[in-house]
Specification:
- With 295 residues, the chain is an alpha/beta fold.
- It contains 12 helices and 11 strands.
- The strands form 2 sheets. Strands 1, 2, 3, 4, 5, 6 and 7 form a 7-stranded parallel beta sheet that branches. The chain has a 4-stranded parallel beta sheet with strand order 8-9-10-11, with helices on one face.
- Strand 6, helix 5 and strand 7 form a beta-alpha-beta unit.
- The N and C termini lie far apart (38 Å).
């Protein structure tokens, strides 16, 4: 793939995965993180299955030195190449030292120009909203740049919820399951939930309850396909019990959209929620009518 504008048509994921089929071997590194990251990873599994892409799933301790220029490494989407977090930038610094090309699934980016400039002509960077897309284009990066929807929109929530997923039963997970039981009981009496983030990306005033931070509560692991489906299942399950959800969590919002729930949506500390809302929600009447975007 030589020209960046090959991917500019809004079907960047589909085109990029078809392009990936030309490599000798394809590797996928799932996003580490919370249940929102798990939902993104499940979105990749869905897209790969639809296009018949064969891949090897790898973990954080994988030895990349065994790969060559005929191999491709796919990194799951997300919001890790921003000033608020270090892991995504550190990963790119490491992986761009090797010969194999990278395919970055739809991202939000802000700042980190020095990291983005490490991407090479053989790499592909997909963005999930127009703020990040225009920023990446303005840098004149050597890699191909494209635009497409967040991978989590590719998830079929009904299919996920049909299959009960029990997390590994150890201390922390047992406590989380008790908190999830609390939500089940609470939802019998209250139809609304304030599922607000409790980390550095929050700009929502006042004290937030960690038990309501659903992305964190349903975090049962992201290092394997099985755990990604488990985390996604429980996040979707909790949200399915409520009628109206107020949130500044991007993937709580996306999960609610998949479930057809009413959402009161707030921005986080940078443009990703506003950007995804504008690109993936506001132009689709069936989705937009269920979202009140406060800003």
């Amino acid at each position: 793939m030589q020209q960046a504008d090959v991917l500019f048509g809004g079907n960047g994921v589909g085109q990029a995965l078809e392009y990936a089929r030309g490599y000798k071997k394809v590797y996928f590194r799932p996003n580490p993180g919370n249940a929102g990251d798990a939902l993104i990873n499940v979105g990749f599994y869905s897209c790969a299955e639809r296009c018949g892409l064969e891949y090897v799933e790898i973990t954080a301790d994988f030895d990349y030195s065994c790969l060559g220029s005929e191999d491709l490494v796919i990194l799951s989407g997300g919001g890790n190449i921003v000033p608020y977090w270090e892991a995504g930038s550190e990963l790119l610094m490491e992986l761009t030292k090797y010969q194999f090309p990278l395919l970055l699934m739809p991202q939000s980016v802000e700042g980190r120009e020095e990291i983005l400039r490490l991407l090479r002509p053989k790499d592909i960077l997909l963005l999930r909203e127009e703020y990040s897309f225009e920023y990446a284009k303005s840098l004149g990066l050597e890699c191909s740049v494209g635009l497409d929807h967040d991978l989590a929109f590719s998830v079929n929530a009904e299919d996920i919820l049909k299959s009960f997923k029990l997390p590994p039963l150890r201390g922390r997970n047992i406590r989380k399951m008790l908190y999830i039981l609390f939500h089940f009981l609470r939802s019998r009496f209250f139809g609304d939930l304030k599922a607000l983030r409790t980390d550095r990306e929050s700009r929502f005033p006042g004290k937030k309850r960690k038990i309501n931070d659903v992305s964190s509560l349903a975090k049962f692991g992201t290092v394997s396909k099985e755990l990604n489906y488990c985390s996604s299942y429980w996040m979707l399950k909790i949200l399915s019990w409520y009628k109206v959800i107020e949130t500044d969590r991007l993937h709580v919002f996306v999960a609610c959209s998949l479930l057809g729930k009413q959402v009161v949506l707030h921005s986080n500390s940078y443009h990703k929620i506003k950007g995804v809302y504008n690109y993936s929600i506001s132009g689709f009447a069936e989705r937009a009518e269920k979202v009140v975007f406060v800003g």
